Structures are given as structure tokens and as C-alpha cells.
Amino acid sequence: MQRSLKWFASVTTLAMLFVLIGGALVTKTESGMGCGRSWPLCHGQLIPSQITPELVIELSHRLVSGLAGMMVLILSVWAWRAIGHIRETKFLAIVSFVFLVLQGLIGAAAVVWGQSDFVLALHFGISLISFAAVFLLTLLIFEVDKKFDAHSLVLDRKMKFHIYGIIIYCYVVVYTGALVRHMEASLACPSWPICSKTRIIPVQLHEWVQMGHRLAAAIMIIWISIATIRAVKYYKHQRVVYWGWIISLVLVLLQMITGTLIVLTQLDLYIALAHAFFISCLFGVLSYLVMLAVRSNYNKQKAQEVSRSTNTVPSMLLK
Predict the structure, then answer these.
(1) What φ, ψ does residue 176 adopt, rounded to 5°?
(2) Active site residues
(3) Which residues does the annotation place in the binding site for heme?
(4) Full-model pTM
């Protein structure tokens, strides 16, 4: 049973990743209206009579999202029953399904009634939360074997500050990136890293949106680098924290590289999809670090209770 649950959770996580990449593909190819103002049907037809590339992309995204929704629901119920005794399970099960439904409703509303670019930019972020919840639920299922030290961590205040701050800031960066796509501002600044070879300061809205995203991304790279240095210096003995930050640094650097190549290659589709893939993976890893930080608080409380009962101070609390 446990092996089957692990397999299904892994496939569901992969399906959610396809939902995210599919949404990015719809935006990049401007296929959002591939089925017209009709939802869930295409042009009001069960089987469309006129097939276009935009219709295929939009309809495929809808089908994958629907399939992923059913898989997430099954995983949530299955995990609830199998590992519901683990503290985070029920919360993640609810969040994963609720946010997936929410992103579907926003997508449907955008098709039927239309939405502003600022509202549409929320769509990817909401899908990202659902993906992260499914990803964490999958990791919880694998954690049952206790093959690594995720259950015994106690983090210091500075590390928890980095974890909480970076994931919130990362979400802001994700929103600015989605806004760039929906406002079609990806090539508003044709030069890199400055907006134009002849001037540094943006002069119109699309340029400000593009340069604002670049600046936000640069700050995130610096912040993650600082947190990674701290993890390497103080957390070598705690593998999940140590490798979590190293992986985060690699992913954010790949994110920067693909973001640069999007401009230099004039919106190459595959590079753009890789850009969405790397930020999705980065947010998933950061979400796991957040779960570890929350769990650290619980571990610290337990350690304090033990110390009070034995009149001793655990060494981990002296850090």
C-alpha cells in the first residue's frame, strides 16, 4: 500500500508540474482564447469542427488540468487516510485541492468574461501554491521511511528569517514575472542587463514592468546566496537544510540564465518553458524549507518540555 501511494504521489506531482508548464505554454503562445469565450467546451462544441494550434494547446491544458484535479483529489483522500497522523498532512491535502480548483475557476472566468493583466498574473501563482502543496504531500509520504533527518531539525532565528522572507519574496518575483508575460513586456527592454544600450532608465510602463522584474530577481539571487552561505557554514550536519539551499541556489541561477536567454533569443519558446519549470521547482524546494522551519518550532517546544522535566538544557537550544 505504501509503495503504491508513493508511486501515485510522484505521478500526481509530475501532473501538477505539467499543469504549470501548460499554463505557461498557453500564455506564451497566446492560446488563451483558442476555444473562444466558451468553457469547458470549445466554441460551444464537444468536438470542435475547426482545429487550430491555439485550440489544441488550450484544450490540452484544460484536459491535463482536469485530470490533475482528479488525481490531486484522490491523493488528498488517500494520504489523509494513510498518513493523517502526521501533522502537516491534512492541511496540505486541503490546500492542494482548494487552490487547484481556485486556479481553474480563475482560468474559466478569464475565458468567459475576460480579466485584467494584473488579475491574470495571479493565475500562475495560485497554481504554484497547489503544486507546492502536492509536492510537500509527496515528500511527507516518502518521509515515513525516516531515511533522512527532517524530523529532528532545530533551526536558529536567522535561518528561519531567511526561509520565511525568501519564500514570500519569491512569490512577489513570480507575480512580477507573470505580469511581464501577460502584459507582453518580455521584449520591452531588448538589451540586458540594462533596458537599452542607449539609456538605463525605463521611460514607459512596459519597460518599468520588465526592469522591475529583473531587479526583483537580482535581489532574490543575492538573498538566496546569503542563505546558502549560512547553510554551508552552519548546517553541514543537517542534510536537508544544507542540500535544500544548494539546490535552491542552483535553481535560481538557472532561472536567471533562462530569463536572460529569453531576451537574447527573442522569446524562444523552449527557453521560456524552462524558465517556468525552474521557478516552479525553486518554489517547491523553498516550500519544503518552510515546512522544516515550522516543524523546527514544534521540535524546539518539545525539547524545551523535555528540558523542564529533566532540568537540563538541550545543546541544540544553546545555538
Answers:
(1) -65, -35
(2) 58
(3) 213, 275
(4) 0.85
